[in-house]
Each structure stands twice: as structure tokens, then as C-alpha cells.
Amino acid sequence: MDNKVSTRFFFETWKNVVLINSQRLKDNWQNANKFTSLIKGEENSILSSIGKVLDLEVYESDYYSLDAIFYDKDDLCPRIKENTFWFRNIRIAFEHENAFNLKLCEEISHLIITNCDLRVLVTYPNSVEEGEEMLLYFSDIIKGNRKDKEFSENEEILVIFGYESDFVWNGYIYNTNSWINIQN
């Protein structure tokens, strides 16, 4: 089954789901562990809600250093034990990072070496300017990957910045020339 999700549709879905859950997120924004569990891990997490909209399953328990993956049931390896998870395809690789610093290179690295349809990073800069500087750093990392042009042409990398002050979410699609801002 081909269930390829576009960056723009993922971002719109993200914004809709976090808006519905805005009070829970705002109440826990400064508690990194609780906030992360609201994003991934809890029964009604943001990711599980997004998975329902996208008609994809979500594995939220770290898979080979990825925070979560979205998959179709057909992507599971056949004839494996029940409640085990080995995949032959990943639809969406997802990274979430509360700490906004140069260690974000690890998150982008995880994403660009993963064979999947879409790569998503959600993180929280202190300012728009700080986010823009990080996007330049991400570009330097991605341009060194042999699939750089493919990532750009197929819009396969999405970075979402969340801002606590106004509960704003900004989305950026990787492009070899410059990041495409997709707020509206």
C-alpha cells in the first residue's frame, strides 16, 4: 500500500492536532519529560492522533535512535512474533527535541540516513532568528548527503519550530536553495 504523506499535509495535520491539545501542551511546556510524553508515548499522544488522521500506525518507543516512526501495517516484517516490531518500510521518521542547541545535528543525522518517505524534526528555538540560524546549519549538514537533491525535489524533510510565547508553530521544507516557509 502506498500511503505517502506530503510535508504540507503533515504540517497542517500537526497544527490541527496541537491546536486541539493546546491547553495540555501549554500547561506542560516547561516540564520537558511530561511535554515529550504528550508528544509521544502517552495513550492519546499528539503522534497517535496524527497517525489516525494519516491512516498510519505509530511506533513511539524509539526505533534505532529515531524517536518515533509512522508505518502501514504492511510495513511490518511478516511472520514475526506478536507485539514485536521489525519493519521493512518506514513511511515517516520523526524526531522530537526539547533542547535547542548544536546537538540537533544528531537529530538531522538520524533523519537523513534513514530510508523513508518523509523526515520530520520538531524542536523549540528561543527566537525566530535562532531558528533561522539553525536552518542554515541543517542545510550545511543535509547538503553533504548524496540524496540532498532528492530530499529537496521530493520535499522529504520538514522542520517544525514551536514557540511557547504565542503557541505558534512554523514549518520549513528543505530546499537546496533555501528553506521553504509553509506557515499558511
List the helices and strands and how they pair.
Layout: H1 7-20, H2 22-28, H3 32-39, H4 46-54, E1 57-59, E2 68-71, E3 92-97, H5 104-112, E4 118-123, H6 128-142, H7 148-153, E5 157-163, E6 168-173, E7 180-181
Q: Can you describe what's shown?
A:
This protein has seven helices and seven strands; from the N terminus they run ααααβββαβααβββ. It is globular. The protein has 184 residues and is of the alpha/beta class. 37% of the residues lie in helices and 18% in strands. It has helices at 7-20, 22-28, 32-39, 46-54, 104-112, 128-142, 148-153, and strands spanning 57-59, 68-71, 92-97, 118-123, 157-163, 168-173, 180-181. It has one domain (7-181). The model has no long low-confidence stretch (mean pLDDT 92). Helix 1 (7-20) crosses helix 4 and helix 5 (104-112) crosses helix 6 (128-142). A seven-stranded mixed sheet has the order 1-2-3-4-5-6-7, sandwiched between helices.
